[in-house]
């Protein structure tokens, strides 16, 4: 239930390539290469991986020395998890145009999925060096460091995890400063601070440091509730993040042992939550009432939790 324990799948879910919008016509049908590229970018975003790959392979066959076409082929291969082939396509694209940050970002994703963290870090760093005013690249590197923090924590190394969380926070802060202040970025920043608070507790930091991290997490989750969504977000994705942020406020107060604030947060945000999320909210309120010795309220909340939780 702890929101800071991001899984590998969740981390990779956040690490998504940003692809341009365009038309859905077959991309090798157009006469002009630039038009074909635009249409292939749209296919890569909107179509199944295999279909996009087929179209982009046709584009590369027609323009084998086009750097963007080879980058898109790498993106398509990455989408279908052909990681070694994706890296080869990115390598060729970089040989043709070493200054496209999107190619380095795509290759960074591929290396990370292969487990080659050192090479992945190099490409994330290069993407930022090539485009230091674009928050997208800082946000992607923030996700990398957050993932590495969860890996270190899983290996029982809280000091190493704390170091990675600090790097993640630095990149997230810069991404938001540069305008990448979407709900996903705000939510990540909040999760980083919550994870930091827990790690500070584990490493016996001062009460003031721990309290600040918890307060920052509450602020982050609160801001994430009403933060704008990117053009690529579906309504369902935006709503899901909003619910996660609302639960995040209550969870942070609970971890900080501010039980009355946990109860107040649940009271404020529970209306409109999906059933399974309401179950988690009732459970938080139940545990908080138990901590405060409010036995009657706790009993009522536990019954609501039992009724709302998934039957399985």
Structural write-up:
The chain has 15 helices and no strands. It has 312 residues and is mainly alpha-helical. It has a domain at 1-131: Serine Threonine Protein Phosphatase 5, Tetratricopeptide repeat, CATH 1.25.40.10. The longest helix is centred in the last third of the chain and has 21 residues, at 235-255. It starts with 7 loop residues before the first helix and ends with a helix.
The CATH topology of the domain at 1-131 is: Serine Threonine Protein Phosphatase 5, Tetratricopeptide repeat
For the biggest sheet, the summary is:
none
CATH H-level superfamily of the domain at 1-131: Tetratricopeptide repeat domain
Q: Kindly state the number of beta strands.
A: 0
Rounded average pLDDT: 89
In terms of topology, how is this protein built?
Blueprint: H1 8-14, H2 33-46, H3 49-62, H4 67-79, H5 83-96, H6 101-114, H7 117-130, H8 135-154, H9 158-177, H10 183-202, H11 207-226, H12 235-255, H13 259-269, H14 275-291, H15 295-308
């Amino acid at each position: 239930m702890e929101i800071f324990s991001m899984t590998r799948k969740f981390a990779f879910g956040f690490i998504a390539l940003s692809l341009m919008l365009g038309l859905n016509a077959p991309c090798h049908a157009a006469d002009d290469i630039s038009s074909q590229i635009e249409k292939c970018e749209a296919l890569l975003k909107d179509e199944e991986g295999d279909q996009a790959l087929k179209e982009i392979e046709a584009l590369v066959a027609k323009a084998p020395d086009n750097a963007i076409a080879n980058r898109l082929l790498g993106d398509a291969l990455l989408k279908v998890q052909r990681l070694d082939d994706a890296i080869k396509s990115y390598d060729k694209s970089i040989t043709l145009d070493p200054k496209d940050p999107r190619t380095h970002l795509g290759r960074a994703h591929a290396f990370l999925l292969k487990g080659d963290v050192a090479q992945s870090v190099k490409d994330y760093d290069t993407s930022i060096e090539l485009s230091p005013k674009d928050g997208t690249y800082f946000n992607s590197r923030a996700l990398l460091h957050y993932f590495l923090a969860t890996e270190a924590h899983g290996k029982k190394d809280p000091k190493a995890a704390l170091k990675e969380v600090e790097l993640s926070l630095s990149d997230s802060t810069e991404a938001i400063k540069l305008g990448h202040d979407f709900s996903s970025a705000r939510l990540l920043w909040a999760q980083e601070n919550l994870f930091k608070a827990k790690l500070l507790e584990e490493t016996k930091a001062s009460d003031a440091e721990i309290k600040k991290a918890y307060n920052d997490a509450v602020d982050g989750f609160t801001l994430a509730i009403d933060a704008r969504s990117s053009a690529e977000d579906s309504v369902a994705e935006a709503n899901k993040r909003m619910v996660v942020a609302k639960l995040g406020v209550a969870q942070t107060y609970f971890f900080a042992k501010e039980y009355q604030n946990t109860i107040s947060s649940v009271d404020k945000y529970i209306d409109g939550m999906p059933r399974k999320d309401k179950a988690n909210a009732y459970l938080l309120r139940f545990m908080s009432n138990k901590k405060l010795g409010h036995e009657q309220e706790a009993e009522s909340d536990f019954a609501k939790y039992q009724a709302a939780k998934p039957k399985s």
